[in-house]
Amino acid sequence: MDQPATKHDLIMAVWEGLDCASVGARELKQIQRAVGQRFGAGAVDSPAALARMLADEGALLRHPEILECDARWRARRLSERVAIQLSFGSLSEAAQSMVELERLRRELSKSGDAQALRELRDAIGQHRGACLLIMESPVLTQAERAEASEIVSWFDVWLRTPELFADWLELRRTAPEFRERFE
Prior knowledge:
Elements: H1 7-18, H2 25-39, H3 47-56, H4 63-81, H5 91-111, H6 114-135, H7 142-160, H8 165-174, H9 176-182
């Protein structure tokens, strides 16, 4: 049998070959694997995009399973894009991580990858939430809570005006009030 000529044809061929009553995570992963093997990793669509395509062709979808699979796939994909491990455990680690996040944001903005930018904003929101928990924890020291509070303010500025963040952070870290409080 000839190899399908297009990605769409391959997706349909794999789906038909699975001969399944409904489509969920297992089936979508098999389709992604086949697309990656045939057309390369860059050609692999998200589980949600594949599910939409299959639904248009009449597939019955296991929606909760697909949503969970898509969320895991996107989180994994975003973490692969970030060249360093991000850490917000201290102000110096947070500053390095924010520089890396800004580099990534500019790269994604330049490439026009709106979905990846949304994923990046979501990841920042999750880190912000973790810092809020630290900030409010009665078992941590006042200094640890103060650093977490400062990092939350960095996230807030980045989320509101990411284009200005690098300059703002440089000014913030040289401000007398910041130096007195944290150095």
